[in-house]
Amino acid sequence: MSELPQMKKTRRWDIFCTVVDNYGDIGVTWRLARQLVAEHGLAVRLWVDDLRAFERMCPEIDTRIDQQWQQGVEVRHWSADFQPVEAADVVIAAFACQLPSVYMDAMAEREKPPLWMNLDYLSAEDWVIGCHGLPSVKYRHVQKFFFFPGFRQGTGGLLREGGLLDRRQQFQEDPEAQRAFLQGLGIDRVPGSQLISLFAYENAGLASWMDALAGDSTPTHLLVPEGRILGDVERWLGLSDLTAGAVHVRDGLTVQVLPFVRQDEYDRLLWCCDFNAVRGEDSFVRAQWAGRPLLWHIYQQEEDVHLDKLEAFLTLYVKDLSEPAREAISGLWRAWNAGEKMTDHWQSTRKHWPELQKHAQTWCLEQASRPDLAAALVQFYVNWL
Ligand code: TRH
What we know:
Blueprint: E1 12-17, H1 24-40, E2 43-48, H2 51-57, E3 67-70, E4 73-77, E5 90-94, H3 101-109, E6 115-119, H4 127-131, E7 135-139, E8 142-147, H5 164-172, H6 175-184, E9 194-198, H7 206-215, E10 220-225, H8 230-237, E11 247-250, E12 253-258, H9 263-272, E13 275-279, H10 282-289, E14 294-297, H11 305-318, H12 323-338, H13 343-351, H14 353-368, H15 373-384
Parallel strand pairs: 1-2, 1-5, 2-4, 5-6, 6-8, 9-10, 9-13, 10-12, 13-14
Antiparallel strand pairs: 3-4, 7-8, 11-12
This protein binds 2'-deoxy-thymidine-beta-L-rhamnose (TRH).
The site of 2'-deoxy-thymidine-beta-L-rhamnose (TRH) has 23 residues, from helix 1, helix 9 and helix 10.
């Protein structure tokens, strides 16, 4: 077990995370926990019910132990038989997870009840602004509040570590650093190629996109982290059992499978690429901080409610683009999320490349002009006191 960090921490925060599926829940809470420790000097316990998912993005995690310190965060295994502990000053239930009942009692028994917040899913829909910060349910006399991330003023903002964009810019201006980083992942960029990362759920539209990339006059080097889309990649290549390290070439398209890397390395991968296909929530935000054009595969929800979220984001994202560029990128995103043919949409998108590249930078700066989510949470607490 790593040692207790020597920090003069006054406020204690508990973050609870249940891993529903995939990596978004742990991805967001791990990022937030680290930032609260590193930038706000808080003592943070991160309670996680599935340490194996966590281990994928933080290989130092020892999945056999219940309590460990990682990068200044006290990581606790949230087991089914949760033992009584003292409740913290601030309690965050990520993505509406249900806190252990003994913990809820501990909150109610504190002399001063904690600030209890539900950190919600990210959405660009209008109603988010009206609901952000509102009181939710009560447990005994302890009030819970809604905290919504978002893209507009009046929301809780987006996770963004201090200095992130400066680090990104420095890296993007340093071809040697990029080359060395890629080489560390076993990537030798195909000369003259566009670099594309592909992190997505299963998608019937992939084959037509790969057809388009293979037939393009500019070569493409497609980097695919191990994950759910690999089956579609295998089908297109006519192969099975693709694993990290595999490289296959079909006409102008080089496909390379990558291992799942730690979050910071995934960031740098996005910064290296000309175009990033991302998914879910956290990778979606990180691709925006990369300042490069992106393609979002949204997490599918019942009754297609995710499509409203997709449209809400698109409305915001494309509003300052020219009409043709707007149509091209919206068409591409809609086709991808419907699993439809991508060929024509990809070609239209390529026609507006310089505009889309510039726009990705402008959008990134606009988003970065607002307080980041960790700072907004701390401010919410200060206002509540
Ligand atoms: O894994 P996801 O599909 O998670 C989803 C979403 O959060 C969705 O909203 C939620 O409802 C569902 O889970 C349950 O996609 P997301 O959010 O992008 O999370 C992936 C995380 O994995 C992110 O933190 C980036 C990280 N990552 C790495 O650390 N290394 C890698 O190599 C890759 C590809 C990703």
